[in-house]
Amino acid sequence: MPREMMFAEAIAVAITEEMQRDSNVVFYGQNMAMTDRDPFVRKFGKDRVRITPISETAELGIAVGAAMQGLRPVVELYMAEFMLVAFDEVINEAPRLRYMSGGQVKVPCVFKAGFGFAAGWAGQHSNCTYHTMMGIPGLRVALPSCSADAYGLIKSAIRDDNPVVYLHHYMLMLDKSPVPDGDYLVPFGVADVKRPGTDVTIVATAWMVKKSLAAAEMLAKDGISAEVVDPRTVAPLDVDTIVKSVKKTGRLVLVDQAPRHASAAVVIAGEVAEHGFKYLKAPVKMVTALDTSVPYSETMERYVLPSEEKIVAAVKSVMAMQAATV
Amino acid sequence: MPREMMFAEAIAVAITEEMQRDSNVVFYGQNMAMTDRDPFVRKFGKDRVRITPISETAELGIAVGAAMQGLRPVVELYMAEFMLVAFDEVINEAPRLRYMSGGQVKVPCVFKAGFGFAAGWAGQHSNCTYHTMMGIPGLRVALPSCSADAYGLIKSAIRDDNPVVYLHHYMLMLDKSPVPDGDYLVPFGVADVKRPGTDVTIVATAWMVKKSLAAAEMLAKDGISAEVVDPRTVAPLDVDTIVKSVKKTGRLVLVDQAPRHASAAVVIAGEVAEHGFKYLKAPVKMVTALDTSVPYSETMERYVLPSEEKIVAAVKSVMAMQAATV
Amino acid sequence: MPTSSQLSKERLIWMYTQMCRIREFEERVKRTFVEHPGVIRGHAHLGDGAEASIVGCLATRHEEDLVMPSYRCHGYPLVLGTSAGKLMAEIYQRSDGVCKGFGGSMHLADPAHHMPTASGIIGQGIAHAAGAAYAAQVKKTGQVIYSFFGDGSSKQGAFFETLNMAAVWKLPVVFILENNGYQAYTKIDLEDANAMAGDPLSQKAKAFSIPGITVDGTDPLAVYDVVSTAADRARAGQGPSLIESKFYRMSPHGNAITVPPVPTQFQEHEAIEVYGNKAEFAAAQANDPIKKFRAKLIGNGTFTDADAKKIEDGVKAEMEEVVKFALASPLPAGEEAVKYVYA
Amino acid sequence: MPTSSQLSKERLIWMYTQMCRIREFEERVKRTFVEHPGVIRGHAHLGDGAEASIVGCLATRHEEDLVMPSYRCHGYPLVLGTSAGKLMAEIYQRSDGVCKGFGGSMHLADPAHHMPTASGIIGQGIAHAAGAAYAAQVKKTGQVIYSFFGDGSSKQGAFFETLNMAAVWKLPVVFILENNGYQAYTKIDLEDANAMAGDPLSQKAKAFSIPGITVDGTDPLAVYDVVSTAADRARAGQGPSLIESKFYRMSPHGNAITVPPVPTQFQEHEAIEVYGNKAEFAAAQANDPIKKFRAKLIGNGTFTDADAKKIEDGVKAEMEEVVKFALASPLPAGEEAVKYVYA
Ligand SMILES: Cc1ncc(C[n+]2csc(CCOP(=O)(O)OP(=O)(O)O)c2C)c(N)n1
Ligand SMILES: Cc1ncc(C[n+]2csc(CCOP(=O)(O)OP(=O)(O)O)c2C)c(N)n1
Ligand SMILES: [Mg+2]
Ligand SMILES: [Mg+2]
C-alpha cells in the first residue's frame, strides 16, 4: 500500500533508510546537524552526520576522496548554484578520476541540491544548472518530479558506484504524492510516462512535469490528448522512450525551466532530430524560460518562466500544423 | 592586403592594438608578465599587465569588480577547464550583476582561455566546456577557427560592454592564415560560411572547422558538395544562417569535439528541429566525441574524437537517405 | 584622519541618527512580513545589531570611496545616501526600487551612491571589491574600497584567494569581516578553526602578512578608529588590512524559507530556536549597540535624552513614509524583464 | 616514531636508494623526449630536486598510510613500491601502464600501493586527501594521509577551505607544501604574500590554528623528523599540520608546450630561461640533496663510496630495464577507450 509522502519527506526517509542499510553512507553539509538533537545525528552519530563551513570545494573534494576510500558521502548543498564555486569537483574530478586511473578507483558520492526556486530568490538563486552537467562522461544527474521518484532516485543515487548529482526542485518540496511501499528504487536512464496520450508528446522534468500535467488536463478539455514523458534523469537520458512516444504521437513539445540553450529540452530536441525525425509530423516546439536571468519581482518572474498557458499554446501551435504543409 | 598570421599571433597583435587604443584595457593572468622584458609589460607597464597567483576565483572576481569600475580586463586563463574552480564568477556573477542591478552597472571583461588540447593532456586538460556557458543570459562565448576570426573576435570581445568568454583552440595556435588589414572586427552572432556547397550543410566550430573543411575536400572528390558553416560564437548563436544553409542543402551534419550532450552540435540540432524542420530531407546527424573523458594514449584519444573520416562517413550516410524514405 | 575623540558633535549625532535609521528600516522590513504578507519574496537578511559597525566603518569614508557588501546589504546604502524609499521599494518588488525590481533584498545596488552591486553568493563580493580597488589603483582615483562580508564567508576560497592577491598587489581595500557569531544557523565555533581554538578570526591575516585586528563592533567609535587606520594605510598605497568587527546579529538569519503560497516570517533567533540558549540572546540584547551609544552620547553631553528622542521619532516618521512610498509604487510590467540582459 | 638519529643503517641506505631511483627515473623520462620523440605526450613534470623531501616524508609512513600527490607525481609511487616499469609504461602511453594508458604522467594512480589518484587541477588533490582522511577517521583504520602539493597551489581556494575543514574535523592528514621556489614559470615572491613579506609559507597555518613548520627539504632526515611529529599527531587524533618543505625544482616546470607534430623537450630551467639568474640555478645544483645525503652517509660511516657507487649502478641498470619494458609494451587498442567511464 503506497504511503502518501511530501517530496521533502520522501528524500529524508530514503536517506535515513540507506544510512540504516549501509554504514558507509555519510551525510554532511552546511547548516545541518547543528546540535545533538538533530534526527540524523541522533540516529547515526557525529562521525556520519556532520556540519560543514561554507566551503563547497572542500566539501565536494572531501566527498570525492572519501568515496575513493569506501565511504558513500551524500553532500547536502541546499542550492544547486552553490556547486558553481566548486564546479571543478563536479565536472572535472568526481566523474573523471576513475577513468584516468584506468578503472582502479570508484567514486560513489551524491551531490544533493535544490534548484529552480521561482519564489523571488532572484538572479543567483533561482536557476536551473543541469545542462552544465549533461554530457559529462561518468556523471549521472537525477531530477525527480514526484515523491515516488524523489525517493526511488535518491536510493539509486546512494547505491550507485558513480558520482550522482541529485537535484530536487524547491517548488515541489511540500507536494504530497504516493510512494510505493518497501525498498522502492527508480533506475537511472528510464523515462516515465506520467500521462499517456495520443496526439502530442510533452517532455518535461521536475516542476515542469507538474505544469505539463496541468496543461495536459486543460488540453484534454479541448479534445487534445497529450502524453507527458518525464526523463527523470537527464544523464543518462532515455532517448528511446521519448522517440517511442513521438512515434505514436508524431508531435513533440519540450518544456524546460531553463533558458533555451541552457535547457535539457534543446538536447532532447537535438536527439529527436537525429533519431525520431522520421516520426515527426511537425517541427518540435520548445517552451523554455526567456533568455534572461530570473528577476526578483513576481510580475517579471512569471513573464520569464514557462507556464501552463504557454505550454497549452505551444501544443496548439504544433497541432495546428497538422493540416498545413510542415 | 591581408597579412598572414599565426592564430596565436593574431590574438596577441589584436590585444596589443586594443590596449594601445584604450587605456582601460588591462591584461593579467598566471605565468605571464613575469619580468620587465615581457613585451606587454614593456609596452603598457605593470599596472595594466600583471602576473597573478593560481587563484582563478580571485582573478575572475577582480575582473568583474574592475569592469564595473571602468576597466576592461582581459584575463588569461590558459586552459578553459581552469575556469571551473571559479565557475560561479563565469556563470552566476559576471553575466548577472548588470541584470540584478536593473541595468545600473555593466561588466565588460574577457575571460580568455585555450581548450580542446587533443595532444595527450588527458582527462582534465583536453575538454570542451563551452556548452556549460551556453544559455547563460548576459554571457557571450566566442570560438574562432582561423586567424582572421581570432583577431576580429578578440577585438569585438574587448570592446563589448558585456562579459565574453573567448576560447581559442590549442590545436590551431600555430596555424597560419590571412588576417584582413586595418581594424578588422568580427561581430558576435554572425555565422560564417567557410566553404559554400549545395548538397549538405556541415556545422562546426574551432578545430572541427578545419577537420570539416578537410572532409569537404574529400567529399568533393566523390561529387558531394558540402557547405561548411562556422557559427564563430555559440552565444549568441546565429541560427538563421544555419537554417538558411539547410534550406538550400536539405541536409545537416553537426561536428563537435565535445561528447554528444555537452556539444554545441546538439543545441544547434535542437534549434533546427524547431526552425528548420521543414527544409530537412533527412535526419540530422551528429559527429561528436564519444561519451568518455579524453584518454591519454594517442590510440585511444584518436578513437574517441571526431575525425575527417567520421565526418565523411556521416555525410555519406545522410546523403544515402536521399533515395530511401526518411 | 581625525581620531574618534576629535569627531564633532554633529558628526556623532549623524552617526547615532544613521544607526537609528538602519534599525528602524530593518524593523519595518520585518514587520512587513506580518502586515503585508507576500509583499517581500525570497529571502531577506537584516542588519540589526550591525549598526555600530556599519556606521563606524562608513564614517571613515572619503566622498568617492566605494562600499561592496554581501547579500545582507540594507544598512550600508542607507548611510551612503541612497533613498530609503527606493531601497524599500526594491525589497517590495516595485518599479521605483533602486534596481527597478530586478534585484530584491539580496542585490541592492546604487552605483551613484558608491555601492555598485551586492552578490548573493558567499565570498564573491570580496573579489569584486578587490577588483574595484584594482581599478582605483590603475586609474589613480585615490579611492578606498570597503569590503564587507560575514564570519561564515571567511571560509570560502574566494576570501583567501582575494586577500592574498590584494596583499601582493597592495590594493587599496579594507576587508571588514563582520563576525556576528553565526553563519546562518551555525555557530561560528562549529565551523571556524580559529574560533574553535579560541583564537580571533583576524588571525587569518597572518596567511597574507597583512595587519589583522579584532574590534568591538558594538562600539562605533572603536570601529571608527581601527578602520581609519586601515583606510589611511590603504590610501597611502600600503595595501589591505583585515578587520574583524565583532557584534551580534539580533534577528534570525532571514525570514523562514517556505514554498509559496505558504507564508513566511521572521521566527525566533537561532540562539533560542536551534540552540536553546536564551541567555546568549538576552546578553546580546543587553549589549544593544544603539542603546549603548545613546547612553554614551548623553553621558558625554553630546545630546540630551530629549534630543535623542527627537531623532528617534524623526527616524520613525521617515520610515513610515518609506513604507507608504514603497507600497504605493507600482509593480513592474512583466515585459520589463527582458531589459538589462545585455549592455 | 623513532627519530632520524635512531634510524637503522639499512633504513638510511634504503632512503638513499629511493632518492637515487627517483632521480634516475626522472632523468630517463627527460631523456625519452630526446631519444624517443613522441613517446611521451602532453605535459610531464619531474620530481628531481624533491627526492630528499619525498623520501624523508614517506619514510615516516605506516604500511597502510595513503599518499595523495599533485600532477607532479612520479616520485611517490616509486617509493611506495609501485613497479617502476608500469609507471614508465603509463608515461609512454602503454597498455601495461599503471593506469593502462588512460592517465599519463599527470595522473599516476596505484591504489594497491597506497596512492589512490592524482588530480591535475591545482588544489583539488588537497581536498581529496582530506576526504581520504575523513574515511580513515570514520572507519577508524588508523591511517594517516600524506597530502603533497606545491607552493603555487597554496594560493588556490581549495587549499584554504580544506585546511580549515581538516582542522575543525581533526582529520588525520599531514599537509606537505613543497616549496620548490616556483609556480610553473613564476617565482614564489611574485605571487605569495607571505613570501613577498619575507615570511615563511608555513605561517598560513595560523589561519587554521594548526601547527605550521618550515623544514629544509633537501635534508631527508630533517624532513623525516618534522613529518614524524606531524604524523604522530594526526594518528593520535589531534588533527592536521602544515609543513613547508623547501627545496629547489632542478628541472624546468615541464616539457615545453607545443602543438603536435612540433616536437617538445625539456628546455633550460626558468631561473635562466626566464629570469636570467644563472647564480640561483648553480647554487641549487651545488646544494643537490642527493649529493649532500651521499656525503653525509659516507661521512658518518653508513656506507662507503664504493657502496654508494654500487647502489647508483644498480639503480641505473634498473631504470635501463624500465625503459626497455615500457618501450616494448603495446599501445592500447583504440576501442579500449570506452571502458572505465562508469563503475
Ligand atoms: C557559495 C554559497 N554557499 C552557501 C550560500 C548560502 N548562504 C547564504 S547566507 C549564508 C550564511 C553566511 O554567513 P556569514 O558569512 O557569517 O554572513 P551573515 O549572514 O552572518 O551576515 C549561507 C551559507 C551562499 N549564498 N553561497
Ligand atoms: C586550477 C588550475 N589552475 C592552473 C593550472 C595550471 N598549472 C599546472 S601546474 C601549475 C604550477 C603549480 O605550481 P606549484 O603548486 O608550485 O607546484 P610545482 O609545479 O612547483 O610542483 C599551474 C599553474 C592548473 N593545473 N589548475
Ligand atoms: Mg555571520
Ligand atoms: Mg612550486
Key features of this structure:
heterotetramer; A: 326 residues; alpha/beta; Rossmann fold; 2 domains; seven-stranded mixed beta sheet; five-stranded mixed beta sheet; 11 helices; 14 strands; 37% helix; globular; C: 343 residues; five-stranded parallel beta sheet; two-stranded antiparallel ribbon; 12 helices; 42% helix; binds thiamine diphosphate; binds magnesium ion
Instruction: Report the major sheet of chain A.
Output: 7 strands, mixed
Mean pLDDT figure of chain C: 98
DSSP strand count of chain C? 7
Bound molecule kinds, no repeats:
thiamine diphosphate, magnesium ion
Specify the CATH homologous superfamily of chain C.
Thiamin diphosphate (ThDP)-binding fold, Pyr/PP domains
Second rung of CATH, namely the architecture of chain C: 3-Layer(aba) Sandwich
- For the biggest β-sheet of chain C, the strand order reads 1-2-3-7-6
**How does the major sheet of chain C shape up?**
5 strands, parallel
Can you give the helix content of chain A as a percent range?
A: 25-40%
Shape of chain C: globular
Strand portion of chain C: 5-15%
Distance between the termini of chain A: 48 Å
Here the CATH topology of the largest domain in chain A equals: Rossmann fold
Distance between the termini of chain C: 39 Å
Structural class of chain C: alpha/beta
What's the tally of helices of chain A?
A: 11
H-E string of chain C: HHEHHHEHEEEHEHEHHHH
Query: Which structural class should the secondary elements of chain A be placed in?
Result: alpha/beta
Order of helices and strands of chain A: EHEHEHEHHEEHEEEEHEEHEHEHH
What's the domain count of chain C? 1
Q: Detail the poorly predicted runs of chain C.
A: none
